[in-house]
């Protein structure tokens, strides 16, 4: 009899204890958080997270450009736009000075930080304000079929090679405007100019934030002159004065109307090679950014998740940030166009052959520099606006390169004075 | 004596000066409370904050006097945006008034189906500014845009012409969209005034041998002047507030950027809230002052006492 009773009692005890075990595994089950991220995101984020943690997620997505005004208006009024929000690298200085986000140093372990090297871009005065979830940097995207059709066998390594390839593509009539380059008054025009400044072997500022682009032999000056030359020679569509980088990617490059994205985003490779979203699927690959010297350079524009100080659900918010930036999820999320920020996840995906142009991306990721080694300054948004406004005016023939560089320097000076 | 008597009667009936005053106050209180809460308090607060430094990146909000206003004098981008805004105001007000009055006169001649014509004319005004602007963005598109298509069909060299790469054509393109949206309001205001002109005035003018043009200049226009003043005031304020059209069609481009876009950038991009508030105060004052000129001038010319 005892043979039956003891196991029965043990089973009953286990059944009674099960919910308690479950609660231990999901200590925050039943809580709800709001998350604000740029669109598009993977379709099952909320469901997967809830299944794993029991925390309900109200995921709101907006276009990247619309997120910042929403964050600023809510945060300046002392309310939380969401419990977890997007946090772009370019906002770091400004949002840090405003003190809007909680430091995450105490809730993120050292191994994670070591694995996510770009996290240091989000660290100001020792305070880690965001955990990077997408490893955005710049590569060059090319349509290899267009190159082959134009008889260009070798991918460009220098800027001269690049111009020669673009001219060959145009002369063969493969595309009318072979190079995609935003010169509108938008952030994309600024980042393209920063990349070309690096490609010409220079920097924007010295360590004391004195501008380094005013002299005609400086890299920044040559970068803008190069952009205007591409426009003048008909290698860039003159309508690019009104197009954002996303519009050039989606309405030109992925439609086969242009052959080279100078300032390409690695995260778009999946979309470009998806027949449902692109007419050039299977033709697109990433190559290392060509430079004047032939030695590639790039810079990082990672995006992070962060938690506003005024969030009322910080514990659950931290759980979401940890889950979203975990190695397993990053590997899974790569199919949605988000390149892992964890070195380990990036290597594993590449070794498994799951990354489009994986070798080029891994090689380029090793050359990624911070745009501002001193840390992103609080005046960056104003400076960047001055940059793209001047580039846009120069591209429309309303300013010379000299005037544009002066205007950018003045914008920087005024921004720093605030 | 009679005053006392009537006072007594009134008191007996429970009505009188005090009761009337109370009722009057009760009746106006909703609008007074609404105006104070939603207009005067925010306006006063905006003016007050514009005299402080309100910037979330800096600690505290110290009183800075007129510093935010004096900074405007050395702001080169602001000067350009003011130039753009004043250009929009002049072009838009002229176009809306001239074309609006002519369109109202034309619609006034229609005897049957006027309401349908009016409904069609009002449509752009009824649509949100952003929707109008997006429609026109397609029209202006360099490649497949309707405008270039029509010009090319007429044999003109406008293949892939980019209208926003030249400041003059860009300003005109933005103004056209704004006028397209706001002119219906001018038409409605002026048409209402035209419909109130007694028919016998036109009969008398006809008997005197006046031509149609003379009747328009000597009868119609003088009698709709006050309506035109109202329409001009409205057009001016709206042109100073131009935002959607410039933002959707040309983004932050300096060549077309009006003051309101500059305010948006200063406030939400640069986080200089008090500077944005000072700019808003100045834009409000300038548009009100200019509008006041029309109103006072027309009031002087049309008063009958």
Distance between the termini of chain A: 85 Å
Cα shape of chain A: globular
Low-confidence segments of chain A: 17-23
How many DSSP E strands of chain A? Answer: 13
List keywords for this structure.
heterodimer; A: 418 residues; alpha/beta; D-Maltodextrin-Binding Protein, domain 2; 2 domains; 5-stranded mixed β-sheet; 17 helices; B: 305 residues; mainly alpha; disordered N terminus
Kindly summarize this structure in a few lines.
The complex is a heterodimer of chains A (418) and B (305). By secondary structure, chain A is an alpha/beta fold. Chain A contains 17 helices and 13 strands.
Could you explain how this protein is built, in words?
Chain A has 418 residues and is α/β, with parallel strands linked by helices. Chain A has helices at residues 2-25, 45-53, 64-76, 92-98, 110-115, 144-149, 159-171, 187-199, 219-232, 245-251, 269-272, 314-324, 327-333, 343-351, 358-365, 380-395, 401-417; strands spanning 32-38, 56-62, 84-88, 123-124, 127-128, 131-134, 139-143, 179-180, 260-264, 284-287, 298-299, 303-306, 368-369. Chain A has 2 domains: 26-136 and 301-369, Periplasmic binding protein-like II (D-Maltodextrin-Binding Protein, domain 2, 3-Layer(aba) Sandwich); 139-299 and 379-417, D-Maltodextrin-Binding Protein, domain 2. In chain A, strands 2-1-3-12-6 form a 5-stranded mixed sheet. Chain A is globular and about 65 Å long. By secondary structure, chain B is mainly α. Chain B has 2 domains: 2-9 and 16-38, no CATH class; 71-302, MetI-like (MetI-like fold). Chain B is built from 14 helices and no strands. Chain B has helices at 2-12, 17-50, 67-71, 76-109, 114-126, 129-140, 146-153, 167-195, 199-207, 212-223, 225-240, 244-250, 259-269, 273-302. In chain B, helix 4 runs parallel beside helix 8 (167-195) and helix 6 (129-140) packs parallel to helix 12. The chains are: A alpha/beta (418), B mainly alpha (305). At the A-B interface, helix 3, helix 4 and helix 16 of A face helix 13 of B.
